[in-house]
Each structure stands twice: as C-alpha cells, then as structure tokens.
Design a protein that fits this description.
This protein has 437 residues and is of the alpha+beta class. It folds into two domains: 93 residues, Ubiquitin-like (UB roll), CATH 3.10.20; 333 residues, Glutamine synthetase/guanido kinase, catalytic domain (Creatine Kinase, Chain A, domain 2, 2-Layer Sandwich), CATH 3.30.590. The protein is built from 13 helices and 14 strands. Strands 6, 7, 8, 9, 10, 11, 12, 13 and 14 form a nine-stranded mixed sheet that branches. It is globular and about 65 Å long. It starts with 5 loop residues before the first strand and ends with a helix.
Length: 437
C-alpha cells in the first residue's frame, strides 16, 4: 500500500496524555521551527478526552513546538508504518513558553536549582504496566517462563527504546498477572521526564506491533494490584560530581540532599495530587499495598513515601554515584513534567530554608501511634482525589511555585475528571481508566 511518512508533534498534557497533530515529514524543516497550532481549550482535556470548563472557551491560539533533540523514529521492520513522533512544549505565538505548559514549568524549576544552588538533578522513572492480552499463569511473577513467553515483545521493546534515544535499564515480569515493569536508565534534567513520556509511547507502540494492548492504568480492577511509577532521584554538582551521599551522616544523605528531600517529604501530602492524579489512584496509596501511604523517609522500605535505596558495598563499587532516593507515591496518570517540576520546587524550598530532617522512620506507619507519627512529622496521604486537590490548593510551597494559571488549569481538569469518573459504577470506572492509559 502506498504511504507517506507522518510526524506526530505533541506534548504531554496535565492528564499525562500525549496529544498533538501529525504533519507530513516533508514539512519538518518548517514545523521544527513553527510547530503546529493548538487552542488553549485543549489544555483542559481530561484523561477521557472531555474538555473541562475553560476560561478561554473557543478563543485564543497556541503552538505545540517540537524539541529537535526529542524526535523518535522507529521502523519495526514488520511492514507497519514507522513510529514517528516529536516531543515538545506549548508556546505563545511569539515563541515564549505558555504559562500553562508543564514542560516549561519543569525547565524553570531545574534552571533555578542550578542558578541558586549550583545543582543538577539526575533520575529515572520506572513504570509498571499490564499486557491485557497476555495469558497469565499462576506462577508468573518474576519468572523467566513468563518473560520467555513474551520474549519477542521484551526484545523489541528494549531495542525500540534504544533507537528512541532512551536508555533501557531493566525489564521484569512483575508480581500481578500479566504485569511487567520497564525502567529508564539515568538521565539528567528535563530528560528525566522526557524519557518517561517517550517510554510510555514506545511501550504502547511495541505492544501493538506484537499483538498486545499495554495499559499503565494505576489499578486494573477494584481491590486489584496496582501499576506504580517510581522515580529515583539524586543530586549532582555543576560538573557532574555526585552530591547526594555522605556515609557519615544519617541515612547516608549529604547536608544538601537532606535539605532537598526534606522539602519533598514535607510536600508529599499535597504533592500526591500531582503524582497520583486520577480517581482510582488512591486505591493504590494504602497501607499494605507495597505502595506508599505516609510522608515518611525510610531506608530499604518499599512502602515509604521516600525510600533511601540500598548501596552496594563491594570495594570496587562507587556508592556516591549510585546513591539515590526513590519517590513511590506516583502513577502514569500524572504528567512526568509536572511531577518533575513540582518535586524540584519542593526540594528548592528545603534548600532555601535549610530544612532539617526529623530522621528516617523505618517502623510501620500504619500501626504506629498517632503521637509517634506526629513527633516525626509524618502524615497520612489524602485518601481520595478531591481531598488531595484541596490539599494541593492550600499548600503554600507548591501554590507559590506553580504558575497560578497552570495550578488553576490542573485543578479544573482534575475536578471535572473526578465528577465524571465518580458517577460511574466501580467496574466501569476502572475499565475506563484502563482504556485511557
């Protein structure tokens, strides 16, 4: 069949969806500079493709302008059309960043981290997803037999990510039936979020080529095991030297790392509105779910809000470079750029105010006495999306950092999404999110 190569020029919106327009590849030289037209109302799309109440209505014009360094073209060599897209951000017609662009917000926070504190952020997202067409077996968790059955998909995915310029790290047959995990390699700055966005689309594309459907929905069904997104982060100096680890200090955190992650820890009860932004996300954020439900920092605890990851102790290892802290209270309904920007904003508050940590809490938060948690400054996360949105709207750190338009835009989208999702019966609600993600 005849055909012409198209390039999809898009951005990740506030619902974590990759939206944009396709143009003929022959127009790339022009579109790389000028982008494609985009109405402000499209920034109010929920996860389900409905436009929330928007102040601009039908008025106004923006541009989705691609980043020439984040162009993906993958020929799967199976007779299908190549996967060809470019990731970018939202701009005004004069080329300045739009106030509602999450990618521009993340860039601004990262720039302030370098300007005010001489630091860069390094990190990687790890994503869990379900292949809904995979015939699960009773003993499939972490099992080579499971991976062997999907060897073609796994091999194609790792290769496709490498072609896309995203370094793959690990691929795992995960705990839940038909669940897998793919992890990004370490990136720096805005590439941390860009790589996460690209990974999601490449995973979906590869699954489709292999006869599968991949979904990153937070939970497949009521009471089911969740699909998390975990974000590993560390600080580096301007010259790239590791700046997170100090073996002589509590939890192994350097002074600046303690301050940065204490800012993040204190913001977590409000931050989850951005990191876990769907009506079903809070099904995961409960005690005993191997997720996170409290704003504690702990070592080697996979239910901690912030987990200080283990270090190799071999003589030939470099612990300072490998040392990182993992944020576990996130899922793929979130915009990775908005999440990255908000985390940096919270970390900047910790650095600016030289916040001291109350120390790690390695106990079980779910069974600890309330006064014990209070002394450690640990809070239970909001139990549903409306509560999380209210907490975000009242948080002084995040509301000061987020551009007012972007914050109002996010709250409007998510409150509208909640109204529609909560009106559905539980099974229908979970099924709708599974299709959306």
């Amino acid at each position: 069949m005849i055909g012409e190569d198209l390039i999809f020029i898009g951005h990740v919106d506030l619902a974590g969806q990759f939206r944009g327009k396709s143009v003929p590849a022959t127009e790339w030289n022009t579109r790389e500079r000028d982008g494609v037209g985009w109405p402000p109302a499209n920034a109010y799309l929920t996860a389900f493709g409905e436009i929330a109440p928007c102040p601009e209505g039908s008025r106004g014009d923006l541009l989705v302008v691609p980043d020439s360094g984040r162009v993906v073209r993958i020929d799967f060599e199976d007779g299908s059309a190549p996967e060809h897209f470019a990731l970018g951000g939202l701009q005004n017609l004069d080329g300045t960043p739009w106030i509602g662009c999450a990618r521009a917000f993340a860039r601004a926070m990262l720039a302030r981290l370098e300007r005010d504190h001489g630091l860069h952020l390094a990190g990687a997202f790890e994503h869990e997803f379900v292949l809904t067409t995979h015939a699960a077996t009773a003993n499939g968790a972490f099992n080579l037999q499971t991976q062997r059955r999907e060897a073609g998909f796994a091999r194609a995915l790792v290769r496709a990510l490498r072609i896309a310029g995203v370094a793959p790290d690990t691929f795992i047959p995960e705990y839940a039936p038909a669940q897998f995990e793919i992890t990004n390699g370490v990136a720096t700055g805005i590439a941390i979020a860009d790589d996460a966005a690209i990974l999601r689309e490449v995973t979906r594309a590869t699954a489709a080529r292999c006869g599968h459907h991949a979904t990153f929905t937070p939970v497949m069904r009521p009471g089911g095991i969740g699909n998390g997104v975990h974000l590993h982060l560390s600080l580096r100096t301007r010259d790239g030297a590791p700046a997170t680890h100090d073996p002589a200090r509590p939890a192994g955190l350097s002074v600046i790392a303690e301050r940065f992650f204490e800012g993040v820890r204190r913001a977590l009860p409000a931050l989850v509105a951005l990191t876990a932004g769907s009506a079903i996300s809070y099904e995961r954020l409960q005690p005993g779910r191997w997720s996170a439900a409290f704003s504690n920092l702990a070592t080697q605890d996979r239910e901690a809000g912030l987990r200080v990851c283990p270090l190799r102790t071999r003589p030939d290892s470099d612990p300072a470079r490998a040392f990182n802290v993992e944020l576990r209270a996130a899922d793929a309904t979130a915009s990775p750029h908005l999440v990255l920007g908000a985390i940096v904003a919270a970390g900047l508050d910790g650095l600016d105010r030289a916040l001291a940590s109350p120390g790690r809490f390695d106990g079980d938060c779910a069974t600890a006495a309330p006064q014990t948690l209070a002394r450690a400054g640990i809070e239970r996360f909001p139990v549903d999306l409306p509560s999380a949105l209210d907490r975000l709207a009242a948080d002084p750190v995040l509301t000061a950092a987020l551009p007012p338009y972007l914050l109002a835009n996010y709250l409007a989208v998510k409150r509208h999404e909640w109204a529609g999702a909560s009106a559905l019966e539980p099974e229908a609600r979970f099924a709708r999110y599974a299709l959306a993600y």
